[in-house]
Amino acid sequence: MNDRSPRWMALVVVSGLAAAALAGCGGGDPPDGVDGDLAGGWAGFTEPVPFRPEAPACHLDGFAPAAPLAGYQPVGCDESHLVETVHVGSFEDEAAELDAPPAPDSSEQRTAYRECEKQVEEYLGADFRQGRLWLGVATPSEPGWQGGARWFRCDLMEVESVYGDPVARESSLSGTLADDSPLRLGCYTVAVEDGQVEKMSPVACDETHEAEYVGAWRAEDGDYPDPADEDSEALVYEGCRQRVADYASVPNDGDLVYRTGTIADWMSRPDWEAGDRAFRCYLWLPDRELTGSLREAGTEALPVQTE
Length: 307
What we know:
307 residues, alpha+beta, disordered N terminus, 5-stranded antiparallel β-sheet, elongated
């Protein structure tokens, strides 16, 4: 009997409360101190607010295109981390009416990428492509979107080399490219195999090198410029030669190809589809050993070589 007694007592108490409540509805006066208005003193329920990440903020894990609330565990940027959220924007208008988060290759995602580029440039002090950095746009998870989340995150990562593996940091990227920085692209030695650039290794520009970063050339929207396609390759190299000419202060004419070679870094197809439209460009002198920068060096430093 003892193991059943507490359950029986609970039923008695509940029944008593129910009886008291029913008695209160019978039309008689309420007891002293009770006004009879059961909900009059309750505050109204507030409208639920969807989760929205913070910026700036750093994250231990690497980049993921979908960022669920369950995995949101920001750390201090002075702690080891792989990703730094620079800005949090909002999908608006027609983009906000979608039934699911925008796909990585959608026009809505590309619009978000362009906003991220501008915010990141202001945060860093220069276009992120001037450094060993990679930009990605993260969106809410499917459940988060269904719950009303309409944000996107602008996430930066330091990488070992252009389009290389991520590097763990213990400091913020804020202002990193405003001045000289180890992250900035500069001069390189170039390893060639079977006529193709196999590897570019960064060195100080006062050390022997063959190549130098000159800036990024932005392509127009359209299909991915496949490097295996001759027309696409020609278009990108034409754009990069203009960057070489501007950087070295030489004419962009028929003689430019006899002054210097050009290297173009291709982004991946997914990066292109996500919104990246700018190719990193380098001047390249495979038959010379340079020991200084060619910025604004002019035609004397880059003479026409016909042999």
